[in-house]
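Example S7 (structure tokens).
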């Protein structure tokens, strides 16, 4: 791997300093900064590139490089890389790599089943629509299609010869039961053990399978699998020996001295136009320096470094992310047989971006409190309907929503729908609820059923934010969906919160008794 480092000494990039003057014309680096590829003697990449071009998908040099390296074959004609990982900032064209790989799997390589998996359903559907358009608008490809399934949750393309391409949104169970020759894991910066446990065994009985990971820089505790792959790649680069089964290609700047394989005295200047070029191969093709400079001013330093320069946040080792409540302490509270007892308290919380919402429950379980995440789904449209179903089933003593949080927008509709008054904690109540939750964990006065990945991820990535003289759970800058943790915290507090009881109806004759 050739090393591309700025000649600027460490520490030269000063906060607030204006970016260096850009050259008149600057193109993105077509080779990755971090790369390890197993040796190969031939590649199906050129054929895949040619097929993509026949469908009108013309690939940039860096995209062609990825396909050539990723589809490298050993002397026996087997894939040299079982795993292929591509890390590049958004809007550079990784989707075209995915489409070219899937076209090759369907029409060139004869792969019986290709599974395309994305973190969110809307991302998977958008990918399905893009490749469907490529196929149906190309005569020689369309003629080989038997059917296109557009039923929600069943999206697939099937050929006359039996090859299939399925699209799935990731969950703890999606992918189970399928036997895939190739698994495409889009948005791999949000990929943990539960998802890998569901998808990886699908290739156990397949001869010569392959898995592709594609996404942008790591975002903290959610980037468990990406961090593993990256550690392997960095170790291979440092040793000078390629990883025997991993092709890893990352476009980024060197912002971390510990990543230097040879000279650890310098790093890239995040304000230099050359750094933008190093991390964005599409610069000069579909990205401009003017646009990235507008992003820099809008995003702020840290967000720009992650989203445009590829400076990720990666957990170093298993469990290192648990900085508030320890992993061992949380797992010690697992009771798979625990059943909460009435009265129950429910709580709702949603992320600042409104991308995910959680509904959580708390109830007594003997001498301790049982907490549980009931729902964690994308978006917000489903929340009030599901809350009404749960209210009818469980008859909880209260619903708790922090009125100053993003979930505060549910309060009015929920009260009208359920005919109740939602309990609205004040700032000091939120701080007390967080402190009480923390103390309950430390003193082992709390149990949970385990196996709830969103709640576990939230605990792993949890951070504190100051709230007066106390603290609460930080919502922003943590890189995880914190709503399950906030939800169980508020639900537990709701068990003892003051609740306005409905007035009892008095029969008319009682007043005159």
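Recovered sequence:
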């Amino acid at each position: 791997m050739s090393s591309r480092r700025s000649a600027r000494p460490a520490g030269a990039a000063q906060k607030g300093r204006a970016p260096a003057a850009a050259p008149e014309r600057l193109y993105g680096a077509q080779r990755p900064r971090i790369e390890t590829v197993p040796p190969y003697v031939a590649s199906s990449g050129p054929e895949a590139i040619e097929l993509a071009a026949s469908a009108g998908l013309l690939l940039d040099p860096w995209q062609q490089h990825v396909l050539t390296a990723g589809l490298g074959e050993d002397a026996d004609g087997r894939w040299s890389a079982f795993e292929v990982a591509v890390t590049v900032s958004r809007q550079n064209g990784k989707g075209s790599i995915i489409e070219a790989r899937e076209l090759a799997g369907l029409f060139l390589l004869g792969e019986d089943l290709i599974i395309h998996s994305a973190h969110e359903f809307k991302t998977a559907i958008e990918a399905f629509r893009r490749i469907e358009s490529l196929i149906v608008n190309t005569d020689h490809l369309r003629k080989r299609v038997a059917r296109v399934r557009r039923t929600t949750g069943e999206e697939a393309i099937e050929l006359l010869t039996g090859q299939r391409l399925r699209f799935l949104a990731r969950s703890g169970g999606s992918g189970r039961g399928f036997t895939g020759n190739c698994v495409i894991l889009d948005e791999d910066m949000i990929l943990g053990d539960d998802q890998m446990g569901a998808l990886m065994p699908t290739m156990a009985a397949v001869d010569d399978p392959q898995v592709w990971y594609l996404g942008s820089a790591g975002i903290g505790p959610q980037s468990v699998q990406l961090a593993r792959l990256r550690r392997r790649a960095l170790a291979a680069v440092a040793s000078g020996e390629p990883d025997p089964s991993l092709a890893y290609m990352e476009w980024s700047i060197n912002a971390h001295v510990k990543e230097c394989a040879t000279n650890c005295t310098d790093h890239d200047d995040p304000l230099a136009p050359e750094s933008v070029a190093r991390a964005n191969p599409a610069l000069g093709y579909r990205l401009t320096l003017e646009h990235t400079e507008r992003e820099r001013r809008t995003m702020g330093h840290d967000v720009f470094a992650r989203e445009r320069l590829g400076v990720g946040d990666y957990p170093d080792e298993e469990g290192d992310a648990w900085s508030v409540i320890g992993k061992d302490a949380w797992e010690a509270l697992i009771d798979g047989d625990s059943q909460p007892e009435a009265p129950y308290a429910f709580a709702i919380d949603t992320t600042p971006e409104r991308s995910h919402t959680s509904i959580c429950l708390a109830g007594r379980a003997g001498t301790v409190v049982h907490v549980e995440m009931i729902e964690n789904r994308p978006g917000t449209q489903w929340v009030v309907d599901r809350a009404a179903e749960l209210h009818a089933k469980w008859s909880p003593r209260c619903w708790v929503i922090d009125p100053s949080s993003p979930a505060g927008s549910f309060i009015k509709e929920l009260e009208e729908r359920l005919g109740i008054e939602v309990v609205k904690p004040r700032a000091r109540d939120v701080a007390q609820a967080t402190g009480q939750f923390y103390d309950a964990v430390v003193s082992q006065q709390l149990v949970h059923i385990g196996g709830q990945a969103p709640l576990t991820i939230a605990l792993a990535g949890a951070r504190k934010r100051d709230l007066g003289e106390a603290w609460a759970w930080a919502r922003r800058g943590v890189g995880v969906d914190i709503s399950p943790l906030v939800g169980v915290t508020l639900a537990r507090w709701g068990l003892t919160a003051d609740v306005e009881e409905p007035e009892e109806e008095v029969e008319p004759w009682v007043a005159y008794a």
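Notes on this example. The two ends are 94 Å apart (CA to CA).
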